[in-house]
# Entry
Amino acid sequence: MSPIIEVRGLSVVFDGFRALDGVDLTVERGELRFLIGPNGAGKTTLIDVVTGLTRPASGEVLLAGRSLTGLREHQIVRLGVGRTFQTSVVFEELTVLENLDLAAAFRRPLLSLARRRRGVSETVAEALETTGLAGLADRPAGVLSHGQRQWLEIGMLLAQRPEVLLLDEPVAGMSRAERERTGELLTSVARDRTVIVVEHDMEFLRRYASQVTVLHEGRVLAEGSVEEVRGDPRVQEVYIGRRKDDAVSAGS
Amino acid sequence: MNAVTNLARLRGPGIFAVVAALALVVAPLALEPFRLGLLAKYLCFAIVALGIGLAWGQGGMLTLGQGVFFGLGGYAMGMHLKLVEASSLPSSGSSSGGGPALPDFMVWSGVEELPALWAPFADPVFALAMVVAGPVLIATVLGLLVFRQRVRGAYFAILTQALAAAFVILLVGQQGLTGGTNGLTNFFELFGRDLADDSTQRGLYIVVALVLGVLYLGARQLVNSRFGRLLVAVRDGEDRVRFLGYDPAVVKTIVFAISAGMAGLAGALFVPVVGIISPALLGVVPSLELVVAVAVGGRFALAGAVLGAVVMGYAKTSFSEQFADGWLYLQGALFILVMTLAPKGLVGLAASAREALAARRRPAVPASRTVKEIA
Ligand SMILES: Nc1ncnc2c1ncn2[C@@H]1O[C@H](COP(=O)(O)OP(=O)(O)OP(=O)(O)O)[C@@H](O)[C@H]1O
Ligand SMILES: [Mg+2]
# Structure
C-alpha cells in the first residue's frame, strides 16, 4: 500500500526566494508526525502546498498515490485532508455549535443546506464531547479564549472526519494546562488518523512525538525518532545558533 | 420566565403580522390613490433592498450595480407592455410591411421593422420569465467569473458600479431599440386592465406588497438555514470556508443571483406602478441610493433593508418636493453618520433601545447594576 502522504522534490519560490527547496517527505497511514524547524524554515509553507493554498514551483504532493497538483483548496478537503492555521480562525458570529455543524455538513448537497438545522447530529455531539466545549455550545465563538478556539478548530476538523490532519502550531500561546489537554486530544485523535503537527515547543515534542522531521531553510535537515533528532549535531547547531529556548538537546 | 421567552420568540412573527395587516388592509383603505402609488413604488425599492440585504448584509458582497438587474426586469416588462399596446392601437401600429406592429417610439426614431430582440417579448409568459431569468442568468455568469478569481470587497463594488455605468451607456446609445434617454413610457394597460384606473393601481399595490412579503419570508428562511450560516461564514472568513470543503464562489454566486432576481422582479413591478422605465432610474446613482437606504435601515437584518428602502424613499419624495438638490447632500451626510455612529442602522438602534429598556425593567439580571439603580 502506498503511503498516505508523499511529498516529492517540492520547491516553492516567493519572488525569487526559495521557501522550500526540494523537500521529500513520506508519511505512513496512521502516523503522528511532528514537523519542527526554526522560524522561517518553511513548515507553514509545506502545509500550505499540501492543502492547495500555495502552488509549488516544482515537485508534487501525492495523497494515497493520487497527485494533488492543480486541485483547489475545497477539493483537497473533500479528499480527506483537513488543516488548522497558526492563528486560529473560527467564525465569531456563529455559535460553537454552528461552527461545528457547518464543518460537519460539508459533504451534504448544497440544496439540502437550505433547511434549518434541527437538533445536533451525532458527529457534532461527539466533537463537542471530545473538545470539551459542550458547555459552550450555544455561545458565539467570538467569546472563546485562545485555547478554546484552537480546540474548536480541532473539533471542526474532527467533525469532518478527515483521513489526514495538518495542524500548524496548535499549542502556541497556550497555558501549561491547555497544552496538556491539547496533547491528550492529539493522541486520541491520532489513534485512527494520520496527523502532521507543526510545533516549536520542545517539551510538548518530548512528551507526544514519535517521528520528527526537521526543516531548515526550506530543506529537510534530519528525520527520525525524537532521540535520534536530538542527538543530531546539525540539528543542534541550527537550534543553538538561533533561539536558546528552542535548543533541542539543551539539557542532555 | 418561560412565558417571557415564549413572548420574545413571538415578537418577530408578531411584528410581521402587524406590518402585513397595515400594508395589505389599512394602507389600501386609508391612503388616497396618489399616496398608495408612492408607497407601491417604495415597496418595489424595498424588494431590491431585500436582495441587497442578503448579498451585502449577510454575504458581504457590496453590490453597487443592482440597478442593472432592476433595469433588465423593468425593460423586459416595458417591452411586453409596449408590444401589447402597439398591436391593440391601430393608430401607432404603422407596420409598413405587414409585420408586427411597432411601439410608438420606434416609429418616431424611424425604425421600420420590429427588432429580433423584441419579438419574443410579445408573449407574456416569455416576458415574465425573462424578468427573473435574465438577471439571474447574468448574475450567475458574472458571479462565477468574478468570485472564482477571488475578486471581492472594494474591487467587487467598483466592478458592479462600472457595470451600472456601462449599462446606462448601452441603453442610451441604442435609441431605436431601447427608447434612449427617455426609456419606455406611455403605458396604458396591463393584462387587459386600464392602468389609469384606481382599482388597477390598488390591485397592483397589493401584488407588490404580497411579492415583498413572500420574498421576505423566503429570504428569512434562507438566512436561518444552514446555508445562511454558511453565507455569514463566507462573509467573515472566506478563506477559512474553503478549508471546510465548501467553494465560497458557488455560495456567493447563488446569493448574488438571488439578489439579482429580486431586483429584476422589482423592476418589472415598478413599470406598471410608476409608468416608466428609463436609464435615469437604474444608473450608478439610483443603485447607490438603495445601498445607502439599506445601510440606514440596518444591513444586518432583512427587516432593516426593507425599512430603510421605505423610509428613504419617503424622505426623498418629501425633501425633493421642497429642496431638490438638498436631498443629495442630506443623503450623503446620513450615510456617513450611520456608517460611523450606528453601523447596524435604525433596526440596530431600536434593538439597543429595547435592550436598555428591558435592562431597566428587569434589574434582577446584572446584579452589580441593580444596586446602583435602586440606590
Ligand atoms: N506569501 C509569502 N510571500 C513571500 N514570502 C513568504 C510568503 N510566505 C512565507 N514566506 C517566507 O517563506 C519562508 C518560510 O515561511 P514559513 O511561514 O513557511 O515558515 P515557518 O517554518 O512556518 O515559520 P514560523 O515558525 O515562523 O511559523 C519565510 O522566510 C517567509 O518569510
Ligand atoms: Mg509557520
User: Anything to note?
Assistant: The beta strands of chain B are 184-185, 189-190, 193-194, 276-277. The pocket of adenosine-5'-triphosphate (ligand 1) is lined by residues A 14, 19, 37, 39-45, 86 (CB under 6 Å). Residues 2-30 of chain B form the longest helix (29 residues). The longest strand of chain B covers residues 184-185.
